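Researcher: Next sequence.
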Amino acid sequence: MKQKSLKLLCIFMGLMLMAIAPGAFAGVNFDVQHTLTTDNSPLDVVASPDGKYIFVLTNAGNISVYDQEGVLQNKIHVGEQVDQIRMAPQGDRLFVASRLKKTVQVITLDFFVEINTADAPAKGPQNAPVVLAIFSDFQCPYCARLGPELEQVFKKYPKSVKIVFKNFPLSSHKFAKTAAAAALAAECQGKFWEFHDELFKHYRNLNDQKILEIAKKLGLNEEQFEKDRQNPLILEKIKGDYEEGQKIGVNGIPAVFMNGRRVENRDLGKISNIIEKELERTHKKQK
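Model: Next structure:
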């Protein structure tokens, strides 16, 4: 009986080993992307949910913030007694704990990006406290709907808001890049925004003929217009806008940034509320 039990046990153990054997020989491929060198010894590390930022807590009481390329972006001083950090699932808050002090600080994170607005079509005061940068596509129906709302925002805050247009033509829209080049060519004759509005009026049926009709309607010098829209510098500018959008995480349009911060809710009422808060924030900084 004992031999039979022992035999059954051996069979059972053999089956168990067979079941776990594949896992025992599983491999892991890895590649060291970056090595972050901190000024002091690291105690804890977390990453933002989108993987764009890495937060490293050091024993000097600082949280060093690195981008996904491993470049130091900022430092947050939290005190030397902090020994643990955690990130909220939404990525908008950081929880900073001290076992010695028996405390947990909640830090609100306000991410913003640098956007090149120097050579982009814009309207509004040059030094406006609020800059709205719009990544857009002239064949996008959602971009077309946003235009009138932005115009209302501009009328409401004529001295406080500057609107900047950035091109983000999708490859799925056949005439988006052509339309972008045409609008920038119209800018050479001081008619960008007029051309911009006409293009969005006809976003459903854009083609070469429609673009020429708009140029004629706006009284552009057609010979100069044709020359400018084929200019390699204009085409390079469109490419630069698109690549910049990709770099800062634009993956859907229209993408609206207010002073470098992404605006998710784009209806007029919510934009106005955000502008009011931004103006209040700016006013406090100036005091």
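Model: The chain has a mean pLDDT of 87. DSSP finds eight helices and twelve strands in the chain.
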